[in-house]
Design a protein that fits this description.
Blueprint: H1 3-13, H2 19-39, E1 45-49, H3 59-73, E2 78-80, H4 86-96, E3 101-106, E4 120-124, H5 127-136, E5 138-143, H6 148-162, E6 171-174, H7 176-193, E7 206-208, H8 212-221
Parallel strand pairs: 1-2, 1-5, 2-3, 3-4, 5-6, 6-7
Length: 241
């Protein structure tokens, strides 16, 4: 028996874990196990993050839809959180191009319904499990204007790359007018005033208005087999994702 499982059973027997802890850990494992099984059914694609609140006729949703279309035209799966607004627009573009359009949705108290433009979908109970799958299923990351959720996803992936906990893959922030003030704060406060980050940290991501940059980066990496995940190339001891 695996040593970790043996230790887990010993902790239960000794009262270090109660029934709620066991149930909770099994729910975590179920989300992760089902997520891993789902993302093994398609090759790594491009993850597109952004607001769930912008109208489909906004400039950003129109741009996300165009990007989804171009990526699908070039054979890259488009992966989103499966919700409305930016996510729906990107999925719609991929769907209209006849490509793989994936939605990894989240259960919310006020129900976030999966958008109608996905070809593959899964619903998660936990945000952390969903974020792991959005990250692991992708070779390029794109962030459109969004709120706290988008910032959370951006900062987590950025931190993992900064600390070399995952490979440094292309990371694009779409919308100079929207994101430049945050980048200036990173530079003036975090980098220069308090030195809590280093200059190279701000080079991990690229702020642009040109979605062709994203397509070129995906094309440069190429089309990987569904059995070939970039995160498997790291030694097991170094893997976080």
């Amino acid at each position: 028996m695996d040593q970790n499982i043996t230790k887990w059973l010993e902790d239960i027997a000794e009262g270090k874990l109660n029934e709620e802890d066991v149930d909770r850990s099994l729910r975590y494992a179920k989300d992760l196990e089902q997520g891993l099984a789902k993302i093994r059914t398609f090759s790594q694609g491009v993850a597109i993050f952004g607001s769930a609140r912008l109208a489909q006729n906004s400039k950003w949703c129109k741009l996300a839809r165009k990007l989804g279309f171009l990526l699908a035209q070039n054979g890259h799966p488009v992966i989103t959180g499966g919700g409305p607004s930016i996510m729906e627009a990107a999925n719609r573009g991929a769907y209209e191009a006849g490509g793989r359009s994936i939605g990894l949705n989240i259960q919310l108290p006020h129900e976030q319904h999966i958008n109608p433009y996905v070809t593959d979908q899964m619903e998660f109970r936990y945000f952390f499990a969903r974020k792991v799958m959005l990250t692991m299923s992708s070779k390029v990351y794109v962030f459109f204007p969004g709120g706290f959720g988008t910032l959370d996803e951006f900062s987590e992936i950025l931190c993992l790359m900064q600390e070399n906990k995952m490979p440094k893959m292309p990371m694009f922030i779409i919308g100079k007018a929207y994101w430049k003030p945050i980048d200036r704060w990173f530079e003036t406060k975090m980098q220069k005033s308090y030195k809590t980050i280093n200059p190279p940290d701000r080079k991990i991501y690229k702020i642009t208005d040109n979605i062709e940059d994203v397509v070129k980066a995906a094309n440069k990496i190429g089309h990987r087999s569904i059995y070939d995940n970039i995160y498997n190339s790291r030694p097991a001891k170094d893997r976080v994702i």
